Amino acid sequence: MKEVLREIGMIARALDSISNIEFKEYDLTKGQYLYLVRICENPGIIQEKLAEMIKIDRTTASRAIQKLVINGFIEKKEDQHNKKINKLFPTEKGNSVYPFIKREHDYSDQVALAGFSESEVNTIFTLLQRVRKNISDEWEFVKKGNKRNY
Predict the structure, then answer these.
(1) How do residues 44-97 score in pLDDT, each as one tens digit?
(2) Which of 55, 88, 98, 145 could cross-link to 40 by cystine, CB 3.0-4.6 Å?
(3) Is the dihedral of CA 121, 126, 132, 134 positive or negative?
(4) What is the pTM of this model?
C-alpha cells in the first residue's frame, strides 16, 4: 500500500515550518497562526469547539490560546448567558495580522497545486475530505478513551 499519510505528513510539516518562519516577524510562535485564523474566521468561538476544529486536545488549545491572549492577538469574553463559557475574539492586532496569514495560505495553496487542472484540484479536495472524515471518526473514538483494534 502507498504511504499516503506519510506524504500528507511531510506536506503538512513543510508548510507548518514555512509558516512558523514567516510569521516570526509578527511574534506568532509555532502553530499559533492556526488558532488565530480560526478565531478570526469564527469570532466568538468557544475553546472546546476550536480544539475540535483543529483536532487537538483541550490542554494544548488552552496553552496556545493563553499565549495569544498574553501577546494581544485575541481576547476572551464571558458568555452573557453562561458565565462559565469564554468566547474568543480577535483583537485589533489579531485582525491586522489575519490578512497576511490568509495571503500566505492562498500562496501556499497556489504553489502546492501548480500544474493541476481544476478537475484534479476538486478530486484532491474531495478525496482529502474523505480521509479527514475517516480520521476524525477515529480521533473522536480514541479521544473518548477507546482503544483501536489494529
Answers:
(1) 999 999 998 998 888 889 999 999 999 999 999 988 888 888 999 999 999 999
(2) 98
(3) negative
(4) 0.83
